[in-house]
Amino acid sequence: MFGFGKKKTPIERMREALDRNDDASVVKTARDAFEDPESTEDTLAWTAAVMYERKIVAGMDLLLAFVERFPHSIHLPRVYLADLHARSSRFDVATDEARVYLRCASDRGVFQVLREGIVR
After folding, report:
1. Alpha-carbon distance 47 to 53, whole Å?
2. Residue 93: exposed, middle, or buried by beta-carbon count in 10 A (0-12, 13-18, 19+)?
3. How many domains are there within the chain?
4. Structural domain boundaries, residue 19
5. What is the pLDDT, as a whole number, of residue 117?
């Protein structure tokens, strides 16, 4: 009634902005999430992945920010970052990113679960 209650999560706010096709709000919310020390790895992985999946160029740097913050993550931002490097003809960097991702997946024993990431 008075606007009290549960605060919306970054993911909820981003989904609303995505529904409105408001890329500027999507990027701002994503950057706010990256600045919030309480944001989880899962939240930031989803947030960075949205930039790639929705082709929001203004937020593509968040893929690198995610990989730097969570270097051993098996979420897809590293895979997406490798793809961007490959599309930019930076094949050595792309290969390095892919190798790191595969090593992280191997170390955790999750090759079967991560088929999409491994195929890329």
Report:
1. 10
2. middle
3. 1
4. 10-119
5. 59
